[in-house]
Amino acid sequence: MNSENARSVTLDQENTVEELTNPFRALDEEGAGTNPCAIVIFGASGDLTHRKLIPAIFALKQERLLGNNHPVIGYARRDKSDDQFRSEMSETLSEFGRFNQSDAEVRERFASELRYVRGAYDKIEDFRKLKKLLDDIALRYQTGGNVLFYLSTPPGAFGPILENLKKSGLADESGSCWRRVIVEKPIGRDRNSARELNKKIHDTFTERRVFRIDHYLGKETVQNILAFRFGNGIFEPLWSNHYIDHVQITVAESIGLGGRAGYFDTAGITRDMLQSHILQLLTLIAMEPPAAFRGEAIRDEKVKVLRSIQPYSRSDAIRNTVRAQYRAGIVDGQEVAAYVNEEGVSDNSKTETFVSLKLEIDNWRWSGVPFYIRTGKRLSRRVSQVDIVYKKPPLALFEQFGSAAPEQNVIGFRIQPDEGISLSFVSKRPGQAMKLDPVRMDFQYRTSFGGTAPEAYERLILDAINGEASLFARQDEVDLSWKLIDPLIESWSGENAAPLYYYSAGTWGPEESQALLARSGRKWRRI
Ligand SMILES: NC(=O)c1ccc[n+]([C@@H]2O[C@H](COP(=O)([O-])OP(=O)(O)OC[C@H]3O[C@@H](n4cnc5c(N)ncnc54)[C@H](OP(=O)(O)O)[C@@H]3O)[C@@H](O)[C@H]2O)c1
Known about the structure:
By secondary structure, this protein is α/β, with parallel strands linked by helices. It has two domains: 17-184, NAD(P)-binding Rossmann-like Domain (Rossmann fold, 3-Layer(aba) Sandwich), CATH 3.40.50.720; 217-386 and 474-518, Dihydrodipicolinate Reductase, domain 2 (2-Layer Sandwich). The protein contains 15 helices and 17 strands.
């Protein structure tokens, strides 16, 4: 289709796709193109606020995507004054985020506008105190009474916060003002607890006002999967079981627990990575083109993918899943301890730090194409990558010239690091003989676009302020993902439980993970 024929999809009579989905549209100097609102962070004394949220809001202000009418209020139980909070956040800004080298005066000016409310999460009086402050702030900063609440506490505190937001009237939308909530992961630890949490959320906020965050979706390279698939004409016709042999998704970390033993040892890698980030990646790779590029249409298609995966029976879960834990080993030239010897982990912990599995999507596009997934801690390298592995050509025409068996073409999405996309194919080696060698075409963000891409949290906070939900998980997505994950975790306990395997830190996981693919004559790609 030439550009004259290319249709821009109209969402309704007034709004074009561009207007509704691109929060980075033209803004004036004060960020007034973005909805004004106060941003309230619960759990503001925590790690996420320091490392990600405050630097992201600062970056948005530096980029003039947020302006003076976006005041920020931290809320937590710890006793501190506004000034203490401000000076901590000013230090945070010099350490984290894209603009940590910016002018110190600018960072301090931003910090000096921050407010801190000391309060409990389960005391209505403290929420009334917050309400009074927000009423004052609405007048002073012309926010129109709009408020974005960010739940950045451990999940145990979500319930009391939501309840008190309701009781205090803080969640009420009156007149034209809006009140929205961003909820951090994890949403539950199984299907039942996720349903309970979603019920609590809905007791206070309707689904339209809820933004369940999965920061993976805020990554440029993850969003680029959709741009690559649906913004180009040549790839989509090749995106099916007619041509694709299988798909590999690798999300590997070389670090261990990073001080999160308390959470991780009760969760494991399956809940931590597979249920959220990796199933999100899988749905973006596998979804059908949406009717329009906006929240509900995109999320409808993602949900259809999850519905097309049959949850495993116990025996299938045991057959198609490998769980493992790391032993001592060497990562990046350093000796590292076994998982059970990490601080905060019990000596006899059976928590999995690695999981690999095979999933199948039973729909017309993907029937017969296995999706292999692996994720783990203390692996050889930190890398997130999706490889679309194509079928071999039907004939080995060049073997007679001494070339190796035909290679499989691969489209590789490098999510991190070295963000980019590559296409592997074979080429004739120069010379008299008809010898073929594998080669690669490579697109790198760094060299094509330069500069630093926005952090995931920047994009997501801005989207929530603009009411754009495409990059957030809807309730049914969360529910269906747990429906798939629960049987895996259940198969690891009770009678005839699936074994827990072990791997040395610094490797790509246990032998059994290779065996999972070897059964069908496939193997994990070298990264
Ligand atoms: N950190 C990350 O990189 C990361 C990544 C993805 C998702 N998350 C999610 O984001 C949320 C916040 O993460 P975080 O790392 O910032 O958590 P955190 O540092 O453990 O906790 C944030 C704040 O919540 C309060 N808090 C801690 N334990 C609490 C408890 N048992 N009950 C009530 N309040 C408690 C504390 O503030 P006060 O005691 O002062 O009230 C603490 O400073 C969590 O849900 C986490 O799962 C974090």
